[in-house]
């Protein structure tokens, strides 16, 4: 049976986060609040957990989830940063609704699906999920909904769709539901927007002057932690150029 905990309760939050960490380390799934919508989360380094996440959403490996991190400093451990302007983007827009696609570190033992050698990273602005990420490490997170249905903006909506496929639902009340993050593919040359979102091309181009805008508008109500499309080497979607935004989730 799934369990729901109110993460806003200061008296039990430490115990709740410890239990969530145990679930993640045992390849289980959580539903967590983000600064966009609720997301379904698994250990980014657990193939069993990632596969369970995709199965819960009714998706295949061609929809690899993005990865949420607790702080920008972990990015070089997960991805190759070939363009130093990436760090300027992170300094200005993280935490927040910006997902950045980068070449994945080839030495890492993980399998997020058909990523074509890239990884989509985001640092969310929701304080409770940041506290969780500090304990669990990077989490693969996709919007908390079944495929083709708007993403949940409450824990109850998420549970109605995902049921007992998730072990713990973290309730932080209603989240903004602002839609998907902006996705920028910094693995492409030149870099490009592959999904439009809250951060505009003009804002991003102040830091990345050669940034192209190939992005389709983000669909309202569909996103969460960040769900980029699979970036293929040159452009794929979430990343890429060809980029077809991996879905509308964030």
TrEMBL record:
Gene3D superfamilies on file: DHBP synthase
First and last residue of the signal peptide: none
Catalytic activity: L-threonine + hydrogencarbonate + ATP = L-threonylcarbamoyladenylate + diphosphate + H2O
UniProt domain YrdC-like: residue ranges: 14-199
Comp. bias (Low complexity): 218-236
Enzyme Commission number(s): 2.7.7.87
Catalytic EC class: transferase
Protein name: L-threonylcarbamoyladenylate synthase
Organism of origin: Brevibacterium samyangense
């Amino acid at each position: 049976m799934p369990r729901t905990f109110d993460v806003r309760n200061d008296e039990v939050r430490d115990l709740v986060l410890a239990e969530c960490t145990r679930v993640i380390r045992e390849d289980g799934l959580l539903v967590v609040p983000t600064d966009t919508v609720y997301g379904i989360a698994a250990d980014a380094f657990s193939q069993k957990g990632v596969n369970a996440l995709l199965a819960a959403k009714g998706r295949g490996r061609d929809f690899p989830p993005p990865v949420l991190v607790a702080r920008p400093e972990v990015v070089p451990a997960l991805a190759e940063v070939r363009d130093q302007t990436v760090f300027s983007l992170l300094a200005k827009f993280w935490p927040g609704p910006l997902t950045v696609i980068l070449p994945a570190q080839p030495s890492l033992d993980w399998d997020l699906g058909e990523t074509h050698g890239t990884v989509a990273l985001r640092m969310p602005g929701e304080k409770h999920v940041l506290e969780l990420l500090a304990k669990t490490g990077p989490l693969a997170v996709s919007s908390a909904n079944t495929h083709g249905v708007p993403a949940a903006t409450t824990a109850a909506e998420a549970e109605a769709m995902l049921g007992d496929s998730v072990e713990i639902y973290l309730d932080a009340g209603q989240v903004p539901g602002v839609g998907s993050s902006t996705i920028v593919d910094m693995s492409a040359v030149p870099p490009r927007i592959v999904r439009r979102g809250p951060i505009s091309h003009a804002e991003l181009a102040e830091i990345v002057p050669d940034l192209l805008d190939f992005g389709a508008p983000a669909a309202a109500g569909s996103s969460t932690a960040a769900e980029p499309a699979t970036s293929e080497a040159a452009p794929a979607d979430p990343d890429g150029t060809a980029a077809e935004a991996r879905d509308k989730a964030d």
